[in-house]
Design brief:
This protein is of the alpha+beta class. Helix content is about 40%, strand content about 20%. The protein has 22 helices and 23 strands. Strand 4 and strand 5 form a beta hairpin. Helix 13 packs across helix 15. The structure holds adenosine-5'-diphosphate (ADP) and magnesium ion. The site of adenosine-5'-diphosphate (ADP) has 22 residues, from helix 2 and helix 4. Adenosine-5'-diphosphate binds next to helix 2 and helix 4.
């Protein structure tokens, strides 16, 4: 067959195939248009899972009558004027393709009235053929009706899944966007039935409950993290420096380690307000849960990343389901750290019953977003941030802003004075507190104790170092040796004295006094493993991680019998820790069996 130009009809159906795959993609495009138009209220109705009808009505800025015909023309958009702007897109749409694509595979009717127009107008497009624009009276805003989707593309119709599946795809989409835009009122109806409705009052927890159910929603942990770009405010005042910083902000919700799914489907990322489905950030999220979840289990998360538009390329996928980051590693590690920190900070002693933290009201709307739990958690979050980054100014203001903090912090962060009972299985310490029994993982506890001591000494720039009687040499594979060679100065700052000693070999001459008597070679190997894992962490974080790593290696092990004196010393040291509840890697240190719970278990009290 000779080469021929495709007819416009075929070409537009091919193009439409990229954007409009199923009813949910139509819903996505129309809702995104409504949001771009600044709508405060978006109302979606569907019939027959969207095959018969999809209608999206908004109260946004509307389309002027003389632009209606253009709106349904391919590559016509009001959101992009030049190629340069392609790299700083702040709207959801920009390709000018959606309405034209939808119009080529359905019958579409757009009725709209622009803010400054006294009357509205309507245009109808069927299989790509436009009718004349006619005048109609409607309120400001836009109503788009899409009827008989794919009626002229039978092959597409065959690929649609069952009504239930297609409907679920629409539901999922709308709920996610409702969560991302809590200030916008969303309403989804199927036939006469309203299946989802949000108030637009900004309450994300209420929407979470619709998404995951009330119980799970209550347990979801809030993530809030921000990172300034390299230019500080003072610097960016300099000419030419403004905007060179790449500020990052992450907010949203993640599940605690006790709430998981067997697939990744509940991991959702919004980037600058756009749901992006296929991104490497999913890996950053799962890595943040590393060692906290069982193999094959995945967290639930809805996270909103805000990044300067110029630092992300959204123009890599026709349906914009993928993006690329200018500094992928940086974004990756920011997300991983932010999630990890939230997880660690929120990790409660496992027995704390969530109901007592949240109050007992089962009503969806009644979560106290600033109730006692919030305050306590904010505090421990700040606490954790301090630990990871020295005394970061931001974490201090965070703590200072929380009004209820003083009252509650002891409940959540510190631990009560405990009376040692003994050791079981050469692994756990058993202790009694004012409110019940505590089981303490000796390894995790010692890890925490060493870590806090080391970081405290490090913050004071004074880590006592102890020379080894005999230097120990360690030979490493080439890649690790190179890594280590680049970090010798950092290690010296931690009280190690490590020197190159022939190819791939290093000599340890001294190590922190805190670890005196421990195996120096093993400590060094633990440190190098850490370098390997992480390519580009921040300095402060690298230090904290190194410290955590080496402390883990140096801590007493499970299965190691401790003398009564050692047990008591460990308990006292733990009491003096800032975060006695979790080890530096985030696992719980203690399990609390409250008197109340024991009484219920023994049938002395009725179940709750
Ligand atoms: P894009 O969103 O990429 O610009 P579309 O084909 O989705 O392309 O829409 C074309 C144009 O029609 C938009 O740029 C916008 O000006 C206008 N438009 C579409 N939907 C709406 C709406 N709901 N409210 C106001 N304007 C709209
Ligand atoms: Mg659009």
């Amino acid at each position: 067959m000779p080469i021929r130009l495709l007819s416009p009809e075929v070409a537009s159906q091919i193009a439409a195939g990229e954007v409009v795959e199923r009813p949910a993609s139509v819903v996505k495009e129309l809702v995104e248009n409504a949001l771009d138009a600044g709508a405060k209220s978006v109302s979606i109705s569907i019939e027959e899972a969207g095959r018969r009808l999809i209608e999206v009505a908004d109260d946004g800025s509307g389309i002027p009558a003389d632009e209606l015909a253009l709106a349904v023309t391919r590559h016509a958009t009001s959101k992009l004027a030049s190629a340069r702007e392609l790299f700083s897109i702040s709207t959801l749409g920009f390709r000018g393709e959606a309405l034209a694509s939808i119009g080529s595979v359905s019958r579409i009717t757009i009725t709209s009235r622009a803010v400054d127009a006294s009357i509205g107008a309507r245009i109808r497009v069927e299989a790509g053929q436009q009718d004349a624009v006619e005048q109609v009276g409607i309120p400001v805003g836009t109503v788009v009706q899409v009827e008989n989707l794919f009626y002229n593309v039978p092959a597409r119709l065959k690929f649609l899944k069952s009504d239930t599946t297609e409907r679920r795809a629409i539901d999922t989409f709308i709920t996610r966007y409702a969560l991302a835009y809590p200030d916008v009122r969303f309403k989804l109806s199927e036939g006469k039935k309203v299946t989802l409705q949000t108030s637009g009052d900004g309450d994300q927890r209420a929407i979470l409950a619709m998404l995951y159910g009330v119980d799970t929603a209550k347990q979801m942990l809030e993530v809030i993290a921000e990172e300034d770009g390299p230019s500080t405010p003072a610097r960016s005042a300099l000419p030419g420096r403004a905007g060179s910083g790449q500020a990052l902000k992450l907010s949203g919700f993640i599940s605690p380690t006790s709430v998981t799914r067997s697939n990744r489907r509940e991991m959702t990322f919004f980037i600058n307000g756009r749901w992006v489905q296929d991104i490497p950030l999913n890996a950053a999220l799962t890595q943040a849960y590393h060692t906290m979840l069982m193999v094959g289990r995945y967290p639930l998360a809805t996270l909103f990343l805000e990044i300067e538009p110029g630092a992300v390329d959204v123009n890599v996928h026709p349906a914009k389901a993928e993006v690329r980051f200018r500094e992928q590693d940086k974004v990756f590690s920011f997300v991983q750290r932010a999630v990890r920190r939230a997880l660690l900070a929120y990790a409660p002693v496992p027995s704390l019953p969530p109901t007592s933290l949240w109050g007992s009201s089962p009503a969806t709307r009644d979560y106290p977003p600033s109730g006692p739990r919030q305050a306590g958690l904010d505090w421990s979050m700040a606490d954790d941030a301090k630990q990871m980054h020295g005394t970061a100014a931001s974490s201090e203001t965070e703590a200072g802003q929380s009004p209820v903090v003083g009252a509650d912090q002891s409940t959540f962060v510190s631990m009560p004075l405990l009376r040692l009972i003994g050791q079981i299985g050469a692994t756990y310490l058993v202790a009694e507190g004012p409110d019940g029994l505590y089981l303490i993982d000796q390894h995790a506890a010692h890890e925490r104790v060493l870590f806090e001591k080391l970081m405290l000494q490090h913050d004071k720039r004074n880590i006592p170092s102890q020379s080894l009687l005999e230097p120990v040499s360690v030979t490493l594979p080439p890649a690790q040796a190179t890594l280590l060679a680049g970090q010798l100065e950092l290690l010296n700052g931690f009280g190690f004295q490590v020197e190159p000693f022939g190819p791939g070999t290093f000599q340890v001459r001294a190590m922190p006094a805190l670890f005196s008597g421990s195996d120096a070679a093993s400590a060094l190997r633990a440190l190098v493993e850490d370098f390997e894992e992480d390519e580009t962490p921040l300095q402060a974080e690298l230090e904290a991680r190194l410290a955590a790593r080496v402390c883990k290696r140096m801590a007493v092990k499970a299965g190691q019998a401790l003398s009564g004196e050692e047990q008591r010393a460990l308990l006292t040291d733990l009491e003096n820790c800032d975060s006695p509840r979790t080890c530096p890697h985030g696992r719980p240190i203690m399990i609390h069996l409250s008197v109340d719970m024991l009484e219920r278990q023994f049938g002395r009290k009725g179940p709750r």
